[in-house]
């Protein structure tokens, strides 16, 4: 499989003669530089082995659905050409999503200039880091101008990202007049049995002379851990995420320090 020339791309993924002429004009304008535009088979695209940019599962699914809706990529990835293959320096998720959306070819902006490894990494990081920031007020205004629910979903934004859903306000605990809040998590029968067994073992290993109310900061850590588990596994159910935390706790249960044995009191 070879990269298709301008004469060969007619009819590929909807490109017609006018599109071919347009590509020829663009590449003519780029002739003085090392940059070119080409329609490239995805099979000839190599994704980065080490990529600091990640995408949550729900974001990636939205990207795939958007590409299916559009029938093509609406933003052009950047690559460096090595022989007949193209290493994607910017747009790895887009190329992968295009493949998962059923596309066989993508439009690439590429360079055939010899780049050192350091130069390639610098381009990769720059394209990920230098992206600007959104003015939240204007972003909300633009979002509100979309009057179609499907298009709102297409935008990848929601009320949480726009800051319209405020986090709950929790008063800190004090020594006097403690107020307790009960958090209920629903488990299936086999799950609750496993959780109870694990809690019992943990309490046995860490038991002491007194029981203290946990710190407020630890409650935040617990919520952060739940959020991280949900994001990593792509789940929304709190009980499922809690089960993932139980898996981790079970693996490291032996690391909980055991209390020192009490010395027997000497008889007088």
Summary, kept brief:
This protein is of the alpha/beta class and 268 residues long. It contains nine helices and five strands, in the order αββαββαβαααααα. Strands 1-5-3-4-2 form a five-stranded mixed β-sheet.
Task: Give a verbal description of the structure.
The chain is an alpha/beta fold and 268 residues long. It is 43% helix and 10% strand. The longest helix is centred in the C-terminal third of the chain and has 18 residues. The chain is elongated, with a radius of gyration of 28 Å. The N terminus is likely disordered.
- pLDDT < 50 stretches: 1-14
How many distinct beta strands? 5
Bin the strand percentage: 5-15%
- Outline the biggest β-sheet: 5 strands, mixed
CATH class annotation of the largest domain? Alpha Beta
In CATH, the homologous superfamily of the largest domain goes by the name: Conserved hypothetical protein from pyrococcus furiosus pfu- 392566-001, ParB domain
The average pLDDT is 79
User: If helices are DSSP runs of H or I spanning 4 or more residues, what is the number of helices?
Assistant: 9
CATH topology of the largest domain: Conserved hypothetical protein from pyrococcus furiosus pfu- 392566-001, ParB domain
N-to-C series of helices and strands: HEEHEEHEHHHHHH
Helix content: 40-55%
Shape: elongated
Gyration radius, in Å? 28 Å
């Amino acid at each position: 499989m070879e990269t298709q020339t301008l004469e060969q791309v007619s009819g590929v993924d909807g490109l017609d003669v006018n599109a071919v002429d347009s590509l020829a004009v663009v590449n003519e304008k780029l002739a003085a530089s090392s940059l070119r535009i080409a329609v490239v088979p995805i099979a000839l695209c190599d994704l980065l082995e080490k990529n600091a940019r990640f995408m949550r599962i729900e974001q990636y699914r939205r990207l795939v659905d958007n590409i299916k809706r559009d029938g093509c990529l609406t933003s052009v990835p950047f690559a460096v050409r090595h022989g007949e293959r193209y290493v994607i320096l910017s747009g790895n998720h887009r190329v992968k999503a295009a493949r998962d959306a059923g596309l066989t070819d993508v439009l690439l902006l590429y360079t055939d200039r010899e780049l050192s490894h350091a130069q390639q990494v610098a381009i990769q990081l720059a394209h990920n880091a230098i992206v600007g920031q959104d003015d939240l007020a204007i972003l909300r205004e633009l979002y509100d101008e979309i009057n179609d629910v499907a298009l709102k979903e297409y935008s990848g934004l929601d009320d949480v990202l726009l800051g319209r859903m405020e986090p709950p306000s929790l008063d800190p605990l004090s020594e006097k007049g403690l107020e307790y809040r009960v958090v209920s998590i629903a488990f299936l029968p086999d799950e609750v049995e496993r959780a109870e067994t694990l809690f019992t073992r943990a309490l046995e290993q860490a038991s002491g002379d007194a029981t203290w109310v946990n710190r407020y900061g630890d409650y935040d850590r617990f919520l952060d851990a739940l959020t991280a588990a949900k994001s990593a596994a792509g789940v929304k159910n709190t009980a499922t995420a809690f089960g993932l935390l139980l898996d981790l706790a079970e693996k490291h249960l032996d690391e909980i320090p055991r209390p020192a044995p009490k010395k027997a009191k000497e008889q007088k």
